Amino acid sequence: MIENLKLKKVNAPKDLPLLASLSMAVPILIGLLSNNLKLGMTASLAAILVVYFPLKGSFSEKILMLMGCSFGFISVYTIGLVFSFNTVVSVIVFGITAGIIHWMVSHFKLKPPKDFFFVMICSNAISIPHQPIHKIAENIGYMTFGTLSTCLVVFLYCFIVKKKLNLEKTLNIPHTPQEIRKSIIEAIIFGIFLSIALGVGYFLNLTNPYWVAVACIAVMQGNSTQHVFQRSVQRIVGTLIGVVFCWGILLFEKNPWEICMLIIILQFIVEYLVPRNYGIAMIFITPLTIFLSEAGTLFTKSPFLFAEGRLFNTIIGSLIGIIGGYVVYHEKFRE
Fold first, then answer.
1. How far is CA 229 from CA 203, 206, 238, in A?
2. Which residue from 202, 232, 214, 213 is spatially nearest to 325, judged by alpha carbons?
3. Which of 114, 160, 206, 274 has its CA 20 to 30 A from that of 222?
4. What is the pTM of this model?
5. Are 247 and 318 in contact (CB under 8 A)?
6. Range with the lowest mean pLDDT among 22-26, 34-38, 151-155, 307-311?
7. Does residue 46 contact residue 73 with C-beta atoms inside 8 Å?
């Protein structure tokens, strides 16, 4: 038990958590100051892409990688909004999109959390009740603004502290035929099980069914069958503690400014903890994602409903993720 609470040593710049929280702070503060909380929250959701900032590579490679991830965020968010008009269509499109995301992330060897946030943003958007065209365009604009502001913050960071960065060229991404075959098979499996996860959420008429898919992808990202099971336990236990933490915050905090400051602080903590201890990080990821994804109803619904819904959906998604992870890493099923 004590081993699970230890923080691993990682070879990463210590100022990355500060960069992540600063990237989150810029769109949030602009949204608050312009009296447009929707802009701030949607744009700050895009600011999560800073976690994909490559630790190695030339200056241009780092910026290009981040811009590529920005395009990915905008694309999956747009797909989610456009195809949310029908549950059956949305489940099918989400599965196909998730499979493509997983293949592309594997192809470009994106660092952890790999395809997690791409899937989270797509599932979040596709679970939103379908909106008229002008509203869809407005939300896409908010997401685009968030990616642009994040790229600008990272560009300034690289320019100021580039002497501390590893600027060796590393963008050579060779793939053997076996690796290509493996990534295609995994992409198909991931797409099927994520589609099932979202479909189960709709079938059970759950509030925020995308949480089921988010829990599923988090668990399936394990490196082995044993690791998948370990991540499922960490996900459930961390979410349980996290929803209690979030429930306590929402009982006392009703001011948007205070919630936004908490989001910035939580982003710093999450960026620091994720590579060091995923289980502990989950305690802080839970309130962070609830605040970001539920900004529109955060002060109108009971805090208990958020906590109960998130925990129940996480348990279902983790169980589906365990089965999916077993299929991914069991050679007989793969064949």
1. 25, 24, 14
2. 232
3. 206
4. 0.87
5. no
6. 307-311
7. yes
